[in-house]
Design a protein that fits this description.
By secondary structure, this protein is α+β, with helices and mostly antiparallel strands. It has two domains: 86 residues, Winged helix-like DNA-binding domain superfamily/Winged helix DNA-binding domain (Arc Repressor Mutant, subunit A, Orthogonal Bundle); 111 residues, Trafficking protein particle complex subunit 3 (Muramoyl-pentapeptide Carboxypeptidase, domain 2). It is 52% helix and 13% strand. The chain is built from nine helices and six strands; from the N terminus they run H-H-H-H-E-E-H-H-H-E-E-H-H-E-E. The strands form two sheets. It has a four-stranded antiparallel beta sheet, covered by helices on one side. Helix 6 packs parallel to helix 9. The longest helix has 20 residues. The chain is globular. The termini are far apart.
């Protein structure tokens, strides 16, 4: 894997992404193309507005997020809006991918069963990334599967639901971590499987028989949601 960013820029991106809260804020900002205020982004990840703003400013300094004043047609001080930099191959993107590569390599080298550990971590993140149903709400499995597909759409996988009831599949046409998955599939793909399982569990649906077939073609992975 080749990285073109200058060492100083990569180090700055590493510092920005060393905190889990900033990673979550970055994903939230990337999922909202229209942009978010610090208060809105903080609410999505459970952070106070002031804390979220501090983290977002670090992401701005690292080149991962851009800041602008909201356009307003009425009187009043415009809000500050944060958006994704939109440059996945720029310095921030290089730093982000390099950090992910380092972490995947570390998991493979230092953990006895890296695939199991990655899946367990993915399950935990799947629970946190999906919106929990309201109290006493019982979702039909089909709706839960659609919500999981929507989650992967927000994460950049370009998903497509296919198959009949009991044989539903999510066709993932674009993996944002394709280069990492090629080199560290046991970690990256297992984490993605865990996200599917965790999201379904959070929605009150069994994930016992869920499987993931990575790279069925060079641009397609298939998550099987068998009930």
């Amino acid at each position: 894997m080749r990285y073109s960013a200058r060492p100083r820029d990569v180090a700055r991106a590493h510092q920005a992404l060393a905190e889990v809260s900033r990673l979550r804020l970055l994903e939230v900002v990337r999922a909202h193309r229209e942009g978010l205020s610090a208060a809105e982004a903080g609410a999505e990840v459970g952070l106070h507005q002031a804390t979220a703003r501090q983290h977002l400013e670090m992401l701005v300094e690292a080149g991962l997020v851009v800041r602008s004043a909201e356009e307003r047609s009425v009187r009043g001080r415009p809000r500050v809006i944060y958006r994704s930099s939109g440059e996945p191959d720029a310095r921030g993107g290089d730093g982000y991918r390099l950090l992910a590569d380092i972490l995947a390599s570390m998991v493979e080298a230092s953990i006895r069963r890296p695939a199991e550990a990655a899946e367990t971590a993915g399950v935990a993140w799947g629970h946190s990334l999906i919106e929990r149903p309201r109290p006493l709400e019982r979702l039909p499995r089909r709706e839960a599967e659609e919500r999981v597909a929507d989650l992967f759409d927000r994460l950049g996988f370009e998903p497509e639901l296919a198959g009949a009831r009991g044989r539903r599949r999510v066709l993932l046409h674009r993996c944002p971590f394709l280069d990492l998955a090629t080199e560290h599939g046991s970690v990256v793909c297992s984490a993605h499987l865990g996200i599917v399982k965790g999201a379904l569990e959070e929605l009150g649906v069994s994930a016992e028989n869920v499987t993931l077939e990575p790279l069925v073609t060079p641009t397609l992975c298939i998550a099987r949601l068998a009930s």
